[in-house]
Amino acid sequence: MTADGGLAAWAERSGRRLGEGPAGGGLRFAFYGRVSTEDWQDPVTSRARQREQAEALVRGHGHVVAEFFDEGESRAVAWGRRPQAAALIAALADPGRGWDAIVAGEYERAFYGSQYASMAPLFEHYGVQLWMPETGGRVDFASEHDERAMTMLGLSSKREVTRTSIRVRTAMAAQTRQQGRYLGGRPPYGYLLADAGPHPNKAHAAWGRRAHKLEPDPATAHVVRWMFAQRLAGHSVARIARALNEAGVPCPSAADPRRNPHRTAAGWTLGTVTTILANPRYTGRQVWNRQRTDTELADPGNVTLGHKSVQRWNLPDGWVISDRLAHPALVSEADFIAVQDVNAARGPTPGEGPAALRQYLLAGLLACGVCGRRMESAWSNGKPAYRCRHGRTSVMAPDPAQPRNAYVREGTILPHLPAMHLLLTTPAARARRRTRGGADARPASSPADVIAYLREHEIILTWDPAAATMQARAAKTAKTVTAKTS
Predict the structure, then answer these.
(1) What residues form DSSP beta bridges with 406?
(2) Domain locations in the chain as residue ranges
(3) What is the 3-state secondary structure (H, E, C) of 60-111?
């Protein structure tokens, strides 16, 4: 044995083992933390607590040299879709990133469900350690014990979220049905928020929180009543919106801009009127669960990005309706139901049969030769057609100086497509396609064949109503051909 301890001691002194940080300096840590909401958590306090816990965990082993902290991100959101977590992932591949390990102040702030199982192989691949308070330090990626602990924590985190969601939804349903309680959000147009006394929850009441209820807004409630009356009289939604715009009645975002900062306040639209006429709370009943939140893969091609939330409307049989009136009604229940019957989607027109569906073969392929806009699909006399109103909508008054609406029936265009198809392709190109086979290896013999070719080659058809001509332009070849359709 040598004086300096032999081969083993020499090997231990030589360099640093993977992940041990610079010689004599300990590990360099990147701290990761997260806070989901600002309504119920103070980001500053939460960050300080998580950072303190992380620094206490690594004390004596190294020090924190970088920080990645996500604010306003749910734990259910995958790392790749959290801004700061995504930045941390991007830094992993950089050898000069300046840190050797990741430390989190709390498991639930970093991982949820199976997220650890998705991220651990990435950390291991780049030789980056992971330190967690729940394991008392470094997570051993090769240890079955640590793997089991992380899996159980992930399931526990997911169970906590699921249990909380069920508890909250059950409570909100009971509060709506039995108490008619106002559960928050922007009050509907036509109503104002009014004080309803101390909060029913004693703890909230002790903090000074007040309950609220809906009261008719003197400035807008009569507008809602008028809209329902007009709809019951048989007027269309477009006519109601146009009348409101012509009368100069402020739309909801203009009537209360402070409550609607995300709206343009440009005027009444079809969507605005439709939404008001479909809101059951104008009957005086409190209604909850008109919308639900579904989850679906953020990217089916990359399951590591996890799931995203999607808002969808529930059918009326899924609504929760209060047993009694919760606020003054602006319309009777009978009138509201009658309006919904007017708004109900109609089936096929008489004589078409149940299997006859409205199909527009050229949707998205036609442009207006007058203004250049894409033409919209419009059913005309039982047949598919296309029109362009040159930017005018149904909620705007007609402008005499504006060009007349352009209309063209689908049946007018379809017979000319095979000839245009032949003009757009060269003999040499057709020969090459015949040798390869495929959809356009033979002359197109049906509208479906031609339309498939148009979409594949990004060909736009421009309809000129004055000259009754149709021009086709292939974006890939810049070739243009014109056909007379009359």
Answers:
(1) 388
(2) 6-158, 212-343, 366-484
(3) CCEEEEEEEEEECCCCCCCHHHCHHHHHHHHHHCCCCCCCCEEEECCHHHHC
Buried-exposed string 6-37: b where 16+ CB fall within 10 A, e elsewhere: eeeeeeeeeeeeeebbeeeebbbbbbbbbbbe
pLDDT along the chain (486 residues), means of 10: 70 56 70 79 86 92 92 88 92 91 90 88 92 90 87 85 87 91 89 89 85 93 95 89 90 82 77 93 94 83 78 90 94 93 55 54 87 85 86 71 85 82 58 50 62 83 84 63 58
* 35 touches 74 (CB < 8 A): no
Report helix, strand or coil for 217.
coil
Distance of CA 118 to the CA centre of its chain: 24
Note the pTM of the prediction, 2 decimals.
Answer: 0.62
What CATH class is the domain 212-343? alpha beta
Structure tokens at 214: 């809906």
> Taking the CB of residue 41, how many other CB atoms lie within 10 A of it?
13
Q: Tell me, which fold does domain 6-158 have in CATH? A: Rossmann fold (3.40.50)
